[in-house]
Amino acid sequence: MEIYTFPVELAAFKEQEQTTKPQIPMSAPAISYSVTKNDQGAVYDWQNDKITIRLAASQTQGLFTLTEDAMKPTFKLGLHMHRKHAETFHILEGEVEFRLDKNTQIAQPGTTIHVPSNVPHGVRVINGRPARMLMLYAPGGFENI
């Protein structure tokens, strides 16, 4: 994981001509950004899926945790809910059935589903093929549960 820190003062960014080098005050507070490459991030390898932490809460000032879940065709997680965070799912590959409270939604690649905290939901892979999705937990910290 590479973490870069540089001073930024948003008020200092004014329209400048392309020939003018931006002036960034050295006394400005530091803001860091993170880069996680494909072979980086903590991995949790369970029986039916493998979760990779793409951005931990420590990398996002606690705002969110971003994970990638590679699920086997037999993956199924029954109805449950989270009291302290919301979940957003974005399907990358395969087909996933979501139970959202009393409703069912089939999600294909490109589908994004947001589940607020305290909403019962369940997930299962369908059609006998593996699936892969990004999951965003807000606020961050899911990796510490």
UniProtKB/TrEMBL annotation:
Could you tell me which residue ranges the Cupin type-2 domain spans? 76-137
What is this protein identified as? Cupin type-2 domain-containing protein
Domain of life, per lineage: Eukaryota
Classification from the root reads: Eukaryota, Metazoa, Spiralia, Gnathifera, Rotifera
Check the record and name the InterPro entries matching this protein.
Cupin_2, QDO-like, RmlC-like_jellyroll, RmlC_Cupin_sf
- Pfam families, alphabetically? Cupin_2
